[in-house]
Amino acid sequence: MTQHHPDTHTLMEYSAGNLSEPYALCIRLHLDQCAHCRSQVDTLDSLGAVMMESQPSADVNDDMFERILGRIDTETATDLEVHTEPKVQTAYSNALERMLESDINDLPWKRQLADVSVMDITHLFPDQHDRVVLQKLTAGGKALEHTHRGRETTLVLQGAFADNNGVFGQWDFVTLDNHDTHKPVALEGDDCITLSVLTAPLKLTGTFSRVLNPFIR
C-alpha cells in the first residue's frame, strides 16, 4: 500500500492537464496503484466538469462551491466502499513498459556512483526541458549524500529505500528540492528502481564526494 502521495495542488494540475508529459507519467503510474489519489482525481475531474457546464453568467459563490464539493465527496466515499483495491499490475505499468520495450531489470544500466546505476530516458520525451532518468540503487546499497539544485520528482517502481524522511516503497511518490539533503539507502531484497524527473542536476554534499560534482549531470 502506498504511503507517500502527490500533494493536492499537483493532483489539481494533473486533472487540469497542465503537467508536462514526464510529470504526468509519474502521476499516472502512481494513480494506477493508489485508490486514495484516484478518488481525489475523480473528485477534481467531476468538479471541473460541473464548472465547465455552468453558464458564464452563473453566480459561482462559496456556498455553491461547497455544495458541489460535498456532493462529490459523498459520491467518492460511496465508490471507495466498493472499489478499494488497486489495479492489478506487473512490476511496472504498461504505460512505462510500452515506452521502454524492456523489463526494467534488463535495461542497459550505466554505473554512475558506488551502488547507483542510471539510464537517461529524456529522449523519450521530445521538447521537454527537464531530465528524465531511471535510477537503480543496489539492494542494501547506499547513495552518496546529496541535495538538489532544482526540483526532483521521484516515483518508486521497484523495491524500497529509506532516508531521513522515512521509508519509500513501491509506487510511493516524493518531491525534493534544494532545501532537502538526504542519503538514500536501499532496503534488502530487490534493487530499488525509481523514475525521476529533474529540473537541475543533484549536488553531492559529503566531505569527500563534493569533488565529484563537476562530473554529475
UniProtKB/TrEMBL annotation:
This is Anti-sigma factor. Residues 103-195 form the ChrR-like cupin domain. It holds the Pfam family Cupin_7. Gene3D superfamilies: Anti-sigma factor, zinc-finger domain, Jelly Rolls. CDD domains: cupin_ChrR (cd20301). It comes from the Bacteria. It comes from Tamilnaduibacter salinus.
